[in-house]
Write a structure and sequence with these properties.
By secondary structure, the chain is an all-beta fold. It is built from no helices and eleven strands.
Length: 133
């Protein structure tokens, strides 16, 4: 997005891409909704994962909010239980909290993710998740 950062901006749909390699158990669909550029600005995306696809463990330097749009998902913070996520759930991961999230085995999963930038970083990707099905 360009122009006056204080002005209303409309982003039209259509810029859906696949996730980068090495961030999940399988590629998933990503649509960037808002791309923060300066420290503290928000970045927002819509993600859609096929059944059973989960992200790698990761952290966000300034935290992350997930809002579940559809499907059934799962999430886990390091050391905590695996939690089921359903449509309408909102999940907050604190800054630097190691976690993962993804689609349940029998359901696609779609969510909005909002996280603030920390310089040029919004996420630090870690190792793949080992889940007992």
């Amino acid at each position: 997005m360009s122009g006056n950062p204080l002005a209303m901006t409309i982003r039209r749909p259509g810029s859906v891409t696949r996730s980068p390699d090495g961030v999940a158990s399988a590629p998933f669909w990503v649509e960037m909704l808002l791309e923060g550029e300066a420290r503290g600005e928000n970045t927002a995306m819509r993600a859609t994962l096929d059944p059973g696809t989960v992200t790698n463990w990761h952290t966000h330097p300034r935290g992350q909010l997930l809002y579940v749009l559809s499907g059934t998902g799962r999430a886990q913070r390091d050391g905590g239980p695996v939690e089921e996520l359903r449509t309408g759930d909102a999940v907050w991961f604190a800054p630097h909290e190691k976690h993962w999230h993804g689609a349940a085995v029998g359901s696609p999963f779609s969510y909005i993710s909002i996280q603030a930038t920390d310089g040029e970083r919004i996420v630090d990707w870690l190792e793949p998740v080992e889940i007992s099905r």
